[in-house]
């Protein structure tokens, strides 16, 4: 498998793991709380690509600052969010961000939800039928 990953651990309580996927997709898995002390780590992670899957299934708390960061990233990138916990879902619903973000229940569904870039290797050769 060609996946590359790195993990950033912030003593403030947020861990970000990045996995590179084919087609220029980065999967960001966050673990911990996203609040005023850790939102900078989230911002830094969201600035790392143009096609992002943000896995929040292991995030216990998402502040309004975290919601704002997701919305700002959504405006400049192709972003898909994976939800798991009730607290994160509640934060997105309370702010109305759930209506603006592409949300999926699992990473696999989020990856499938991203559109393919031209040249991703899935196009048929000229003269070949599906």
Polypeptide structure, described:
The protein is α/β, with parallel strands linked by helices and 130 residues long. It has helices spanning 39-46, 64-76, 86-95, 107-113, and strands at residues 5-10, 14-21, 25-34, 51-62, 78-82, 102-104. The protein contains four helices and six strands, in the order E-E-E-H-E-H-E-H-E-H. A hairpin with a 3-residue loop joins strand 1 (5-10) and strand 2 (14-21). Strands 1-2-3-4-5-6 form a six-stranded mixed beta sheet.
Short overview:
The chain is an alpha/beta fold. It has helices at residues 39-46, 64-76, 86-95, 107-113; strands spanning 5-10, 14-21, 25-34, 51-62, 78-82, 102-104.
Q: Strand percentage, roughly?
A: 25-35%
**What proportion of the residues is helical, as a percent range?**
25-40%
Query: Roughly how many Å is the radius of gyration?
Result: 16 Å
* Number of separate strands: 6
Strand order of the largest sheet: 1-2-3-4-5-6
Task: Please identify the structural class as seen in this structure.
Answer: alpha/beta
Shape, principal axes of CA atoms? globular
Described by its quaternary structure, the protein is single chain
Instruction: Give the helices and strands as they follow along the chain.
Output: EEEHEHEHEH
Largest sheet: 6 strands, mixed
Uncertain stretches: 1-6, 117-130
Averaged pLDDT, please? Answer: 84
| Spatial separation of the terminal alpha carbons | 26 Å
How many DSSP H or I helices? 4
């Amino acid at each position: 498998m060609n996946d590359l990953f790195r993990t950033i651990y912030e003593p403030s309580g947020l861990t970000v793991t990045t996995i590179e996927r084919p087609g220029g997709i980065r999967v960001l898995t966050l673990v911990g709380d996203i609040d005023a002390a850790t939102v900078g780590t989230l911002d830094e992670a969201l600035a790392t690509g143009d096609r992002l899957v943000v896995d929040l299934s292991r995030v216990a708390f998402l502040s309004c600052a975290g919601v704002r960061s997701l919305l700002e990233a959504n405006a400049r990138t192709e972003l898909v969010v994976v939800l798991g916990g009730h607290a994160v879902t509640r934060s997105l619903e309370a702010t109305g961000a759930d209506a603006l973000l592409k949300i999926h229940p699992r990473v696999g569904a989020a990856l499938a939800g991203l559109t393919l870039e031209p040249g991703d290797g899935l196009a048929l050769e000229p003269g070949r039928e599906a």
